[in-house]
Design a protein that fits this description.
single chain, 174 residues, alpha+beta, three-stranded antiparallel beta sheet, two-stranded antiparallel ribbon, 4 helices
């Protein structure tokens, strides 16, 4: 069972959690072969890492919120708990206590008053990189084997004076 040219930089959340480092760039190819004959397993695994490079050190907080699934009732309870702990101005009753709001209203107010952090900006940068990569490969102008996504400092100023700070950087292997 072959897997080839798997971009590794999107796996930074996992490498950060379990290894303590971001993945700057690299691709993984696997050739897995398994055979069961008379209750005996034979396996042959070939692993190829192409230009694998660790990036910056990441302080891990452990399990990601994305790995947890909760029921709608639990979601409502947690949503209310988050809303009550928020520091932005929230609607109050006539006597000054926090006004009870429906989940849909809390879902609007929390993100509208939340500052976007580095993790969210990295995810946006990743989505943009995938879109550009897919375009370059699907348009037929560049083979997937030659294209490497680079994990760069998303806060770095543009290389050119007056240039746009919103960009995706790639390395192309000749």
């Amino acid at each position: 069972m072959p897997f080839s040219e798997i971009e590794l930089s999107p796996l930074t959340p996992y490498s950060g959690t379990y290894l303590g480092y971001a993945i700057d760039k690299g691709k993984l190819s696997l050739a897995l072969k398994y055979l069961v004959d008379r209750k005996e397993l034979s396996a042959e695994n070939k692993v190829f890492l192409d230009q694998f490079t660790f990036g910056e050190r990441i302080e891990s907080g452990g399990l990601s919120a994305d790995a947890v699934e909760i029921s709608p009732a639990e979601e409502s309870r947690w949503l209310k708990a988050v809303y009550e702990k928020e520091k932005f101005p929230r609607p109050r009753t006539i006597i000054g206590t926090l006004k009870s709001l429906p989940d849909s209203e809390m879902r609007k107010l929390i993100p509208a008053n939340t500052v976007v952090g580095e993790q969210q900006l990295r995810q946006l940068a990743r989505e943009r990189a995938v879109a550009v990569s897919d375009f370059l490969v699907n348009s037929g102008n560049l083979s997937k084997e030659r294209l490497f996504e680079k994990s760069a400092d998303i806060f770095a100023p543009p290389a050119k004076e007056g240039g746009n700070g919103s960009r995706v950087e790639f390395g192309v292997v000749n």
